[in-house]
Amino acid sequence: MLQSKLFLKTKRKISKEKAISARLLIRGGFIEKLASGIYNFLPLGFLVLKKIERIIREEMKKIGGQEILLATLHPKEIWEKTGRWEKMGDLYKIKENGSQFALGPTHEEVITPLVKKYISSYKDLPVFLFQIQTKFRKELRAKGGLLRTKEFLMKDLYSFHATKEDLDSYYEKVKEAYFKIFERCNIKEKTYLTFASGGTFSKFSHEFQTICESGEDTIFICQKCKQAINKEIKLQTKSCPNCGSKKFKKEKAIEVGNIFKLMTKFSKPFELTFLNKEGKREYVLMGCYGIGLGRLMATIVEVNHDKKGIIWPGEVAPFLIHLIPIGNVRKVSDKIYKNLKEKFEILYDDREKESPGEKFQDADLIGIPLRLVVSEKTLKKNSVEIKLRKEKKVKLVKIKSLKREIEKCSKRI
Amino acid sequence: MLQSKLFLKTKRKISKEKAISARLLIRGGFIEKLASGIYNFLPLGFLVLKKIERIIREEMKKIGGQEILLATLHPKEIWEKTGRWEKMGDLYKIKENGSQFALGPTHEEVITPLVKKYISSYKDLPVFLFQIQTKFRKELRAKGGLLRTKEFLMKDLYSFHATKEDLDSYYEKVKEAYFKIFERCNIKEKTYLTFASGGTFSKFSHEFQTICESGEDTIFICQKCKQAINKEIKLQTKSCPNCGSKKFKKEKAIEVGNIFKLMTKFSKPFELTFLNKEGKREYVLMGCYGIGLGRLMATIVEVNHDKKGIIWPGEVAPFLIHLIPIGNVRKVSDKIYKNLKEKFEILYDDREKESPGEKFQDADLIGIPLRLVVSEKTLKKNSVEIKLRKEKKVKLVKIKSLKREIEKCSKRI
Q1: What domains are there in chain A, each with its CATH number?
Q2: What is the Cα–Cα distance from B96 to B115, expressed in whole angstroms?
Q3: ipTM at complex level
Q4: Mind listing the pLDDT tens digit for each residue in B230-254?
Q5: Other C-beta atoms within 10 Å of A232: how many?
Q6: Out of A46, A72, A118, closest to residue B134 by CB
Q7: What ranges in B152-230 are assigned the alpha helix state H?
Q8: Of A6, A150, A132, A41, the residue nearest B69 (C-alpha)
Q9: A103 interaction partners in chain B (CB closer than 8 Å)
Q10: Nearest chain A Cα to B90, which residue?
């Protein structure tokens, strides 16, 4: 893509946002604030969002998830069935003539009666359904850019089981899938499986908490087993629910995902039952599993940045390569661009008025993993300068071996 | 995909819906009604939706569109600027403490001030931005399944120009892109470019109207040039605005797209201006271009079906192949499935309780383009029976030449 054509304007001035991810995403032209807790995704931000979406979709499919798309407008009646029409304080409610709707903040009230139509026997179970869809919650504490917003893209997976063993085993599979997602987003090392309250139906649920400066949550990491507990659990217990150790380290963190054994919490009010092997009627056991895509994007930035800007991990980067010509080398760099774009995702900084300094500053801010610089100096050696955003050293590479070098480098990003 | 694992249950009973597309999509397990004008997309429907999305995305990118994702919650203030907070009767409004929001039914109020931040000179123009996003409109006439709903996925493209010539020329490009989309969805032959009112800022806008039974609109097709006019224009004129002919044919149709020269309608209230080549300040000229994805899906079904069910055009089909074993042939058909699934999108009807009749009925209803039947009879000849959903004739094909034959057939669907 030609940078001169890209709908992008980086900002020098640091925005007022407190969280570093908000500042960098706004300054880098990835997102734009429409109102408190409400953001537009610009072309660069949209590209990252799609990459994150792809990772999540792939990992959900690997554990048997089938993708659907549920409605946003939920009739009041289904939310009254679970008592959450009144109980859930952050529900957006909307009127239309005689009817009332909730703007879906989560979808148990929609998916449970839906699945009921499909389940009669244990043979119909298990079922794994997920969607990637915009959710809405009244958010008084909206701040921190994409970390806490009123509308947000969320992946929500729901599982339905005949036995506790089956739910337990799937729950472990989801745990693994989540860590795989966080690994591909390069935040795994700082992300801790964290015990949280399980509500009335389970002893514990789990959060995935990523340590970072802008974190609003506090977690306590067990120094023995490296699992963590959240504030609420810390108040109830002095020892790690996983290994019993009493040594914890306190950290600020962001919740990037959560998984929850709902058990019969929703199957009861909606009478979601099945006939077991003995022909007896039982309630279906449910689990739910969420990841917010915008919050994940922000967390990736929280973990992957330096003073100059973002350092996108390869799998979520908007482009793989940022090609920057310096000086009177337009003809050769046009050729290099044409040659590379057939094989790689590449952003070509073909802008003519910007100084080399401005171009480098923008490149560091935007954070594309591989930077190629073409200048009169490099061309004298029939070469291009290659630099990984995350490393300091630059390397001259002969133009004829450029593709091979890029492929080699792209394994390290 | 194994059909026994697919979250799918076809319905024999014809639903009450009047529109044939609604009946077939519900019976075929593509969508499910949550409330009047509100639908959930099930796995099969979601697959079709993604195929449609891909076609639209590709064609928008070909004409320079850059993809973004705008917010759903719109502050009241921006809608007051254009007077549409009061004027637009079908706006969903929502309160949160002191603030009020509209649920975006269209995005001129968001994108115009956004683009304003990026435009200062004629050199920054043109700009083409699009998104594929859920829109909301109060819809009293909700009926016909996906043809008219309260929430709906829409592709909306906005263009920004320095001159009328540039807007005009881009408008023609969008026309072509739209017909390309409708061609790939196999509704082009029944889709007519239709003159509609242009509002206060343009003489005409254009709708794309597809002739079908369930159409709620009436169009008048010029018998000379094959362009059409809608009811409103028909009241104003007796001759075709394109060729002057007075011979029209009246038809029922569905609006599957519309394109509109907004001119300065939105750039004026938002003061979206630029400096022209002479250094003088001018208003930016705008165009907007919409396609509803759900409505398009329904229209494809309206045009592509027979008594037995849907006949998906190849590019939007949820799968390319429906593999159906009949009788005691499971081992061989498992092998064929394994072999084909590496190369093709294939649904394998591995269900054991269903009779051949039920399997064929389901296959016809779901409408996957290529049906392969494996039976003891076909295996005696080392063959598989192949049939196009849209044709009547069946053909025996040797197993060893199956892939080649599938590739040949897939060009005709």
Answers
A1: 20-70+107-306 (3.30.930.10), 319-409 (3.40.50.800)
A2: 27
A3: 0.97
A4: 999 999 999 999 999 999 999 999 9
A5: 10
A6: A72
A7: 164-184
A8: A41
A9: 94, 103
A10: A96
